[in-house]
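Researcher: I'd like a candidate sequence for this fold, 324 residues long. If you have to choose between options at a position, lean toward the conservative one.
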């Protein structure tokens, strides 16, 4: 038996997790292994470049956005426990087994601008429970704290699966036998940090408190924060969150005055919620600067939200600046 499957079934038994939920996760992971294999081949499998289509959010789709979405939907259609799915790349939710118990929400390919330049990308997923009635959009619109599991697969130098049921964060590395093997490290985000991630090119569009916050970081030792900060921006949320889980930090995608980002850029259901669930399980914090992300009741499937997550004391500091 594969190590991942037996590890997960032991984990489920010890932690009282339903076997149907485990089967849904196994299906998602199967799909991600297929996506990982396509990513590894790159130009050799013809997956680079534009698809020539757009999604409902007005974004141009890459071939891999479309392919990853297709692979996930196809695999999940074969799992009888999945009532339906919602995807960043689908206009509406897709009904699979209407009266079943689980909903899977995903960003099939995160960090699309990195595909063609061979920089880390990923798949993000979120799982919600649903009651036995006929599936409707309202079933997907649950606050992030209702998630029963969330995770991502990072397609980087290694393919890494990160998974949480809310209490702790599990990490696995894909081996050459297409099996995810548990990593040895304990995942925990330190409360403080000296590393931040934000797209600085949007600076002139930010609101004054965000300007003030980043200005303070850039002043380093000479400023009021009295320490130097390092900066990173991969433009893949999966890669940024992974770095924060491994060595700490803070990630910010605030709202700004551009027409398309007045409510932020990242999607609440496919990006902010699953990543906040993972970050919180690792001892970090996630805020929209108006409230904790996991407390927000979604209004619609493709809703966007400002995101600030990572080291809890640093997130608190940014929140405080926005309260004054
Ligand atoms: P996606 O590829 O799914 O559209 O998501 C990209 C997101 C996120 O991963 C990243 O943090 C951010 O967009 C990068 O945005 P900029 O290009 O504006 O920096
Ligand atoms: Mn994304
Ligand atoms: Mn995407």
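Model: Candidate sequence:
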């Amino acid at each position: 038996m594969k190590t991942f499957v037996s590890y997960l079934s032991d984990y489920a038994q010890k932690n009282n997790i339903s076997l149907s939920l485990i089967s849904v996760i196994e299906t998602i992971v199967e799909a991600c292994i297929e996506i990982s294999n396509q990513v590894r081949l790159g130009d050799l499998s013809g997956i680079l470049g534009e698809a020539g289509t757009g999604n409902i959010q007005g974004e141009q789709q890459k071939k891999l956005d479309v392919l990853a979405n297709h692979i996930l939907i196809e695999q999940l259609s074969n799992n009888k426990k999945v009532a339906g799915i919602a995807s960043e790349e689908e206009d509406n939710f897709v009904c699979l087994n209407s009266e079943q118990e689980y909903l899977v929400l995903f960003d099939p390919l995160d960090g699309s601008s990195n595909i063609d330049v061979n920089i880390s990308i990923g798949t993000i997923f979120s799982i919600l429970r649903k009651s036995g009635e006929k599936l409707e959009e309202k079933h997907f619109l649950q606050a992030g704290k209702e998630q029963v599991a969330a995770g991502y697969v990072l397609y980087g130098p290694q393919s890494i699966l990160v998974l949480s049921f809310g209490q702790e964060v599990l990490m696995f590395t894909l081996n050459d036998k297409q099996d995810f093997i548990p990593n040895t490290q304990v995942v925990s985000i330190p409360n403080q940090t000296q590393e931040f991630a934000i797209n600085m090119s949007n600076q002139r569009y930010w609101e004054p408190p965000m300007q003030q916050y980043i200005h303070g970081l850039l002043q380093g030792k000479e400023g009021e924060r009295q320490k130097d900060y390092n900066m990173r921006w991969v433009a893949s949320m999966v890669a940024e969150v992974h770095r924060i889980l491994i060595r700490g930090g803070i990630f910010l995608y605030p709202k700004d005055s551009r027409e398309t980002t007045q409510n932020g850029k990242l999607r609440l259901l496919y990006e902010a919620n699953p990543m906040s669930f993972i970050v919180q399980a690792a001892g970090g914090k996630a805020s929209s600067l108006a409230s904790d992300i996991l407390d927000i009741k979604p209004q619609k499937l493709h809703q966007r939200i400002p995101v600030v997550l990572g080291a809890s004391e640093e997130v608190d500091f940014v929140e405080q600046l926005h309260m004054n």
